[in-house]
Each structure stands twice: as structure tokens, then as C-alpha cells.
TrEMBL record:
Catalytic reaction(s) noted: 2-formamido-N(1)-(5-O-phospho-beta-D-ribosyl)acetamidine + ATP = 5-amino-1-(5-phospho-beta-D-ribosyl)imidazole + ADP + phosphate + H(+)
Pathway stated in the Swiss-Prot or TrEMBL entry: Purine metabolism; IMP biosynthesis via de novo pathway; 5-amino-1-(5-phospho-D-ribosyl)imidazole from N(2)-formyl-N(1)-(5-phospho-D-ribosyl)glycinamide: step 2/2
Pfam families named among the record's database cross-references: AIRS, AIRS_C
Gene from which this protein is expressed: purM
Protein name per Swiss-Prot or TrEMBL: Phosphoribosylformylglycinamidine cyclo-ligase
Organism this protein belongs to: Blastococcus colisei
Ranges for domain PurM-like N-terminal: 58-162
Keywords per UniProt: ATP-binding, Cytoplasm, Ligase, Nucleotide-binding, Purine biosynthesis
NCBIfam families according to UniProt: purM
Native organism taxonomy: Bacteria, Bacillati, Actinomycetota, Actinomycetes, Geodermatophilales
GO cellular component terms, A-Z: cytosol
Length: 350
């Protein structure tokens, strides 16, 4: 074979086409009635029924999975990071009250291994199904001269819709609101550069089960990000936009840092650590040198999403989320600000 072919340069078109064939069935399962056409077009088409809305606003979010992918590569397990990818964008969308409509993904890799790409995209499709969003297309790019053969990275953009008079956020949050915490499923998709450094420095075995955990460390660390979008939207539908005032997706920056983003000037959200237990995996990181202050900035510490709700519906919100399979509890309240911070943690973890 001539050295001057695309395949010899590191791009295997046939492998890319086989990857599309392997992922097609999973992608098609994500279709919503509004999707026009199928996989393989140059653009994804989605028919927004404008008659359904009074004044629709389109919302969009773009994100990736980050260095959690390095652990997926290390453990040679690629079927969960796609769920992480979806969660990172749709749970951002729902923070403003938007319903995720559709998503497009981008996979950059050193070499297209059809089975690996199909596993990644099947995970993306599973996440889309959980979120109620259609996967209307994407791109797989083979960069053999930029990345090692087993390297890859992921990104996605999701689009959602929300009524203009139903946008959630700090403008709705009021003195006396109750902060409802929703449990995370693990580290989600943030803090993994620190996690991986601790694992390496401490010589932790990803295949062993450390004290305090009930499964191998690698499985714990690859646990997919919980997708809250549908259950948050159901909370707004059931309790009303006049009572559910804001959501905050707890990602990089931690619980206090992200909660502060939905608290208006003059108020602060005070969260009581004593209302939940610090996850064992976070304690493991701390046992191997991560200071508590850094844990609370880098990790979600057991809370993946919060809702600021009117006090009269706080118990109902907790009950509804629990019934949907999301452990939830009253973690604090909004009050007049007494210091510099818009959100703070007090007390001691259980």
C-alpha cells in the first residue's frame, strides 16, 4: 500500500463507517417525535413546535467529561463516560428551567476502533434517553498525528427550551427559601485531575476495594454522573414555577461555589453539613492528603444538584425526588447576607 493514503496517514474511513453502523441502533432509540430525518445527514434537524409555547427561549450548553476519560482508558471501560457527557450539559440546561431537546457530540481520537467508539456513543445515547433528549448527530474525528492510538476526548452541545416567563434563577430566590439537596452518584465529572494524582501518589489499586467502599475503586471512580434533568423538570411541573425558584448544578467549584451562582445580592444560602454524610470516596481522598477545604472546592462532596424552593413546598419536593429515586433532603435555607459569601457551609458532616 502506498504511504500516501489517508489510512497510512492515520485516518481509517472504513473504520469510521463501521463505528457508525455499530452505534446506529442506540442513537435511533433516542429519537423524539420532533426529530426530522435520521443519522447520516450533514446536519441534525429538529422541528420545534412553536404553537406549543407562548414565548419560547432556546437554551444551549457545551461541555466535556475532562480527565475522567483517562481513568476510562486505564480501565479499558468506555460505556459510561458518554453518560457523563450528557449529564454535564443537560443538567446545566435544567438549571434555568429548560427542557433538553437534542444533543450533538464530538469524539476526537487517535485511532477509530469501531467497538470502542460504539461503546462511547452507546453511553451517550443511554444518557440522552435518561434526559429525554434526542441525539441528532455528531462527529468522530481521527487525529492519528496528534493523539496516541488509545487516546480520545469528548465534547457535546445540547439545546433546550424554556418559556420566557418560567426561566429559573437568582431573580426568583427569596429570603426564607429552603435549599433542597439532591445526592450525587459519586464524583460525577469534576475533580479527576486531583483524584488521579492522589491515586498515583498513594499507589492505590483501582482493582482493589479500599476500606469504606463496597466495590473496587475503579468502579467507584467510573460511576456515571447522575442525570437530574427530567426529575427537576417534573418538580417544576408538579409544584409550580412560582414555588421552585432555582436549581444549581454542582460541578467544578464545589457546593458553595455553585450554589452562590443562584443567590441574589443581599442574600446568602447557608448549608448545614450535618444534614448528610460525606461520601466514603471523598474521605478516602482526604485520608491520602487532600485538605477538607480543597475537597469542598474540587468535589461535589455528595451533592450533585440543589433546588431553592418556597418553604411551604420543601417537604413535598424532598418526597417527590425520593419517589423518583433521587435521595434528597433539606440542607439549608436562604437568609439575609451577613458576610461576603453568597453561600456557605456550616457544621460537621455526619
Amino acid at each position: 500500500m502506498s504511504e500516501f493514503t489517508y489510512a497510512a496517514s492515520g485516518v481509517d474511513i472504513d473504520a469510521g463507517e463501521r463505528a457508525v453502523t455499530l452505534m446506529k441502533a442506540a442513537v435511533e432509540k433516542t429519537n423524539r417525535p420532533e426529530v426530522v430525518g435520521g443519522l447520516g445527514g450533514f446536519a441534525g434537524l429538529f422541528a420545534l413546535d412553536t404553537a406549543k409555547y407562548r414565548r419560547p427561549l432556546l437554551a444551549s450548553s457545551t461541555d466535556g467529561v475532562g480527565t475522567k476519560i483517562a481513568l476510562a482508558r486505564q480501565l479499558d471501560r468506555h460505556d459510561t463516560v458518554g453518560i457523563d457527557l450528557v449529564a454535564m450539559v443537560v443538567d446545566d440546561l435544567v438549571a434555568c428551567g429548560a427542557e433538553p431537546l437534542f444533543l450533538q457530540d464530538y469524539v476526537a481520537c487517535g485511532k477509530v476502533v469501531p467497538e470502542r467508539i460504539a461503546a462511547i456513543v452507546t453511553g451517550i445515547a443511554a444518557g440522552c434517553t435518561q434526559a429525554g433528549a434526542a441525539l441528532v448527530g455528531g462527529e468522530t474525528a481521527e487525529h492519528g498525528d496528534l493523539m496516541d492510538a488509545d487516546e480520545y476526548d469528548l465534547a457535546a452541545t445540547a439545546v433546550g427550551v424554556v418559556e420566557a416567563d418560567a426561566v429559573l434563577g437568582p431573580e426568583r430566590v427569596a429570603d426564607g427559601d429552603v435549599v433542597v439537596a439532591m445526592a450525587s452518584s459519586g464524583f460525577h465529572s469534576n475533580g479527576y485531575s486531583l483524584v488521579r494524582r492522589v491515586v498515583s501518589a498513594a499507589g492505590l489499586d483501582l482493582h482493589a476495594t479500599p476500606s469504606g467502599l463496597d466495590r473496587p475503586l475503579g468502579e467507584e471512580l467510573l460511576e456515571p454522573t447522575r442525570i437530574y434533568a427530567r426529575d427537576c423538570l417534573a418538580l417544576v411541573t408538579e409544584l409550580g414555577v412560582e414555588r421552585v425558584h432555582a436549581f444549581a448544578h454542582i460541578t467544578g467549584g464545589g457546593l458553595a461555589g455553585n450554589t452562590a451562582r443562584v443567590v441574589p445580592e443581599g442574600l446568602e444560602a447557608v448549608l448545614d453539613r450535618g444534614t448528610w454524610a460525606l461520601p466514603s470516596a471523598v474521605r478516602l481522598m482526604e485520608e491520602h492528603g487532600v485538605p477538607r477545604e480543597e475537597s469542598e472546592r474540587a468535589f461535589n462532596c455528595g451533592v450533585g444538584m440543589i433546588a431553592a424552593v418556597a418553604p411551604e413546598v420543601a417537604d413535598a419536593a424532598v418526597a417527590q425526588l425520593g419517589g423518583a429515586g433521587i435521595p434528597a433532603w433539606i440542607a439549608g435555607a436562604v437568609r439575609p447576607r451577613t458576610g461576603q459569601s453568597a453561600a456557605s457551609l456550616v457544621g460537621t458532616y455526619r
